[in-house]
Amino acid sequence: MDDLFAPPAGAWQRLAPRAAPARALDTAIGNLVWLAAAVAAAWIFLEWWVPVLIGGLGLVWLVYITLRAWRWTRAFGFAEREHDLVISTGLWNRKLAVIPYSRMQSVQVHSGPVERLWGIAKVSLVTASVETRATIPGLTATDATRLRDRLIEAGEQQALPL
Amino acid sequence: MSDTERELPPSEPPSEPPAVAPTPKRTERAHPLTPLVRGWVVLLAIVIGFGREFVPDGSEPGRLPPLQLILAGIGAIALIAVIAGFMSWRFTRFVVDADELRIDAGAIFRSSKRIAFERVQAIDVVQPFAARLFRLAEIRIDIGGGETTQLRYLSLARAYELRDYLLARARGHRDAEATHHELTAGSVLADLTEQDQVLVRVEPGTLVLAALTSHEFFGILLSGAVAIGITLALDLGWAALGLLLPVGSALIGFVAQRVTGQFNYTLSRRAAGLRIARGLTSLTSQSLPPRRIQAVQISQSLLWRRLGLFRIDLEVIGWGAVGGEEDAKSVSTIMLPAGTADQVTTAIAALWPTTDYRQVELTPAPRSARWLHPLSAPFLRWGFDARLFVAQHGWLVRRWQLVPHSRAQSARVAQGPLSRRLGLADLEVHTAGTHLSIHAEGTDAATVGERLAELHAHFHHLPDHDVSEPVPAPAVEPPRDQAAGTADRLADQADATISSTE
Questions:
Q1: Total structural domains in chain B?
Q2: Cβ of B418 under 8 Å from any chain A Cβ?
Q3: CB pairs below 8 Å between A and B: how many?
Q4: What's the alpha-carbon Rg for chain B, to the nearest Å?
């Protein structure tokens, strides 16, 4: 069923290769915090082998989920079509979101501390729906601002008369 | 009550239409009985609180203070409440004229609120029980963003009058005139006048039947039965008997709430738009803001299939959870508490006149969907036409979800590892509402892939007129399906009136 997630016209635009290590570090830090908390809790309240087991399994998971960031980043694709933005994400649970420019309310560019280390930013298109998840997570700062400007221009041109 | 109104000195007799902009603004106050109606809860609490002291309950009677002291205490609290209520009433004034809608309030901290007529989204006239006794009513003006402005309490006739005027202005009729509203039996009970076209009416009998056969009722029954079964299994015979009481009262309470809340349900059409009136102890008359209705869900629980009953819920921006238990405080998102298939068609045709959900061609889920949705697979369907996206799913409670393309914000296809093996995909349509998650489950991935581009094209190629607008402006004679829809509507209405006279 690959044609369902095939690029709509030509090829997907991909994320910057630099986005992968940034995402990896982000996931690693996030998971490490939880892992440390779980191990500490197990150390205090349970037998000695429970925290060792949790820590061991957790580290394997941590390495896997961190390395997965590279594959995830390569799999991410987006396309700017004439009337809408198409975003395809996910390795196991694949998702294809289509957001018409006419529904755009604002475009946000966000760059966290980890992302800034690699000089990347994420661009989100905001609609009136909270369910719309239109975030492109790993673009170089210049690409991100350019994409933002293109999206805003398209949104203004195609805005619905209210 | 109108006699008292004239004897007390409010600034103006409130039932006259605002005159042609006199130089000093004509301001109005709420009805003089307002402090009394608002304060009755306080009074009741005081009476109950002190009254309990006099009921002999085995405690030593010596601690009771002398009667004079108690009466003095009640008097003092009542006096403060009355003065506070009176001050709040005295210093609240409002202006409704051709230029503005403004509410000034506050004795110490003055506040003035001016509402642009075009911002008015919907207006509800609400009569809590105490207000109903005096034929008073509260106006709630919904101006979007979850913000509601209240005007309470006005005489019922004045409330209806203001509501009609404000709705006319909200629709851009600048020269609208506030017409004098004659209270008739119909308008007091169901907010109906002769010009109104009654579309759907639900009989109390239907409400009782629907509540008794709803899945919520059986949910309470089942949990009660399980609890009693456990106590019996543990050999606690008396505890089981003790459980009967709360379970029974929960069941009765549920049915009573459904019936009193939706009593005398009437969906009617007036020049200013659609209106729903309902309620037994407290009466609510709400106007439906057509452009803020994002999606509609028709649902049918197991036993309702036999009875041919359906329920309609609305997803309206800023109205809260769909299917949330409604009380007098919040607006109800139930568009139709229980009705036949014809009534559902009538109601939705009234809401979105240019759509017909029954005409939308639906694609059933493929056989492989049984692996992921073993129970609901035969019922799963999805489809769309030029105006409407339709998805149906559910097993115990069947749901039909309708979204006009013009209300959709974005769409998303999702496919997990299992779905990929089975050639399935799920399709979500996102709206500006947050409570109904519109989605089609277990759809054939290949079909979705083929039709996705078409759906997206509908999203951005919007027709010239909104789905909630009845007739396309340029068409001299209405298109055929439109005319048929109107004929259906009239027929349905005839059915409804026939059944109501039975």
A1: 3
A2: no
A3: 95
A4: 27
Tens digit of each residue's pLDDT (9 = 90 or more) over B257-279: 888 888 888 888 877 788 888 88
Summarize pLDDT for B62-88 with one digit per residue, the tens: 556 677 887 888 788 878 877 888 888
Residue B85 maps to a domain: yes
* Rounded Cα–Cα distance for residues B254 and B233 (Å): 28
Query: Per CATH, which fold does A76-156 belong to?
Result: PH-domain like (2.30.29)
Asked if A28 and A62 touch (Cβ cutoff 8 Å), the reply is yes
Where are the alpha helices (H) located in A46-75, listed in sequence order? 49-75
Nearest to B216 by CA among B113, B304, B142: B304
Which residue shows structure tokens 């921006």? B317
End-to-end CA distance of chain B: 35
Asked whether the beta carbons of residue A92 and residue B416 sit closer than 8 angstroms, the reply is yes
Phi, psi of B264 (to 5 degrees): 60, 30
The pLDDT score that the predictor gives to residue B35 is: 78
* Amino acid present at B75: G
Both B190 and B208 in one domain: the answer is: no
Q: Please answer yes or no on whether A4 and B449 come within 8 Å at the CB atom.
A: yes
Q: What are residue A120's DSSP bridge partners?
A: A140
- To the nearest whole Å, the CA of B450 is away from the closest chain A CA by 8
Does residue B40 sit within a domain? yes
What is the pTM (predicted TM-score) of this model? 0.76
Element (H, E) at B493: helix B480-501
B269 inside domain: no
Pairing of strands B136-142, B122-127: antiparallel
On chain B, the residues whose CB falls within 8 A of the CB of A75 are none
Find out whether the peptide bond into A101 is cis, omega within 30 degrees of 0: no
DSSP class per residue in B110-125: -EEEEE-GGG--EEEE
